[in-house]
Amino acid sequence: MKPPAASSPGAAAPLGGHARIVKAAAAARMRPNLADYAATYRDFGWDKARALLDGLPNGAGLNIAHEAVDRHAAGPRADRTALRWIGRGRERDFTWRDLRAESNRVADALQSLGLRPGARVFVMAGRIPELYLAVLGALKARCVVCPLFSAFGPEPIAMRLEIGEAEVLVTTEALYRRKVEALRPRLPQLRHVVLIGEGGAATAVPGTRDWTAMMAAAGTDFVIPPTDPEDLALLHFTSGTTGRPKGAVHVHEAVVMHAMTGRYALDLHPDDVFWCTADPGWVTGTSYGIIAPLANGVTNLVVEAEFDAQSWYDVLERERVSVWYTAPTAIRMMMKLGTAALAGRDLSALRFMASVGEPLNPEAVLWGVEAFGMPFHDNWWQTETGGIMIANYAAMDVKPGSMGRPLPGVTAAILKRDEDGGVSEVTAPMQEGELALKAGWPSMMRGYLNEEARYRKCFVGNWYMTGDLAMRDEDGYFWFVGRADDVIKSSGHLIGPFEVESALMEHPAVAEAGVIGKPDPMAGEIVKAFVALKPGHEANEAMRRELLGHARKRLGSAVAPKEIDFRANLPKTRSGKIMRRLLKARELGLPEGDISTLESDER
Ligand code: ATP
Ligand code: MG
């Protein structure tokens, strides 16, 4: 394999390269599900993926909750652990049989409220068992589930309930009191609020119902009504990294993708203990934190506590996690602490690690090898795609910095927009263009809620335009360049922020980097970097000069940052993505735009 060429003239080959390929043999300790990528890709058909699933009895269609729960509850896995919850000081295990009974109660209770199919049921809670039961039960009742991130403030919550025309909100008493109660008069369509008490205690708040009482009154037998695969199932708001969040709508057919990608991209095997660290308030936490593992008959671990490296390592060790799906922001925080925190731990059960949400810097992939004996496997997708589209598979050599190759059934291409509004494919290797996907995979969004025009704008002919820029190398690996909105144009060069950030991350003092284009009368834009340092390093003039020099050496002077500012932290969305548009707006003194998903940040 040839090392990929530089992405822009003047850059020293920044990403990947011969010496840095991680051979697959080190990554796979079990017979991988996708052993022969080329043959599987060639021979694939969606009918084959569909055949991995059951369908509702008597040909009554396809329902996500049936595939995730009832199907296994009726089979040999009925009494195995489906969901293992580790709360703060408490634990609870649910077998598939338990999950069936409990989600049936939810479905029965929702039906007794007189909800029509398609009614929107919003769920907002931390990672507690009731949330998972509510999601599965609502899907059984053919309601549309919309998870809301529990750390949102009152305004973003009310806005989403309003746009999403929520009829039911399932939340905790504490969250309701703090964030919803005062805004309730604004939400006339919200007919029912169901409150979960602290530790399962009963609640008695005016204008609401008590979860515990509703569950006690509901039956454990429920027959999922006929469900068309095209019936709406999930509504997910995007992260709002680039602007106002969009409500992407998904249908029950999406479970075909969840099951298939769980099997191929995450390499789930029946005896796995799978841990997805994403919050169910975001699409990853639903597609892979609930549906994909359960549909594959794999034990799904749910950990209530927020990120803390030591306690995460405790979970990996104690629970014998075998497949772990996490995000670059968490990996970078672990890197900040170094490998010492892992010394003496028995992580022998762990055999596959994957990452999503943001570009994964090559340094982070390789740190996986150093710290865990295997690389983090990057994969790429979006709220809109509903499931993983491009991935590094267990049986594949990893080129650190690459997102991997498209899933079987997924056609990905690099396109350039023409003057006349059409597109043409860029076939030469390592040329930048917009990453596009041929429409037609099962978990593709069916629309943006109430935003037909915004949805239409995503398509050119049969291509779904992702809004991300990427390149493809001669081996068919895709390389992320940056979001179209974030790309920097400097003296005729197109510079992807990811390339510059990754080079900065190679410096031992750097914990995080975010790069923007700053308007400049000579160059059009210059590259400006914001850097957070690891503990023990001082943000001073000497460090600034050192990092500028390091970047120039790595990237060449055309691409390296001209300016570096230090920050204690970089602004991130609550789903953990660096908000470059906000760094830029603040730098230029412009309005901050929609920051409803911003996590509080220290400047
Ligand atoms: P919004 O669309 O509201 O601006 P968002 O795009 O961040 O927010 P998500 O759907 O949560 O919302 O994120 C998808 C985006 O995240 C992708 O389009 C891409 O820019 C980025 N992303 C996700 N995974 C990866 C990855 N493995 N490598 C590079 N970028 C990634
Ligand atoms: Mg997006």
Automatic annotation (TrEMBL):
GO terms for molecular function: acetate-CoA ligase activity; ATP binding. Signal peptide: none annotated. Gene3D superfamilies: 3.30.300.30, N-terminal domain of ligase-like. GO terms for biological process: acetyl-CoA biosynthetic process. Keywords: Acetylation, ATP-binding, Ligase, Nucleotide-binding. Residues 499-577 form the AMP-binding enzyme C-terminal domain. It comes from the Bacteria. SUPFAM superfamilies: Acetyl-CoA synthetase-like. InterPro entries: AMP-bd_C (IPR025110), AMP-bd_C_sf (IPR045851), AMP-binding_CS (IPR020845), AMP-dep_synth/lig_dom (IPR000873), ANL_N_sf (IPR042099). Residues 71-449 form the AMP-dependent synthetase/ligase domain. Its EC number is 6.2.1.1. One of its GO terms (cellular component) is cytosol. This is acetate--CoA ligase. It comes from Falsiroseomonas bella. The lineage of its organism: Bacteria, Pseudomonadati, Pseudomonadota, Alphaproteobacteria, Acetobacterales.
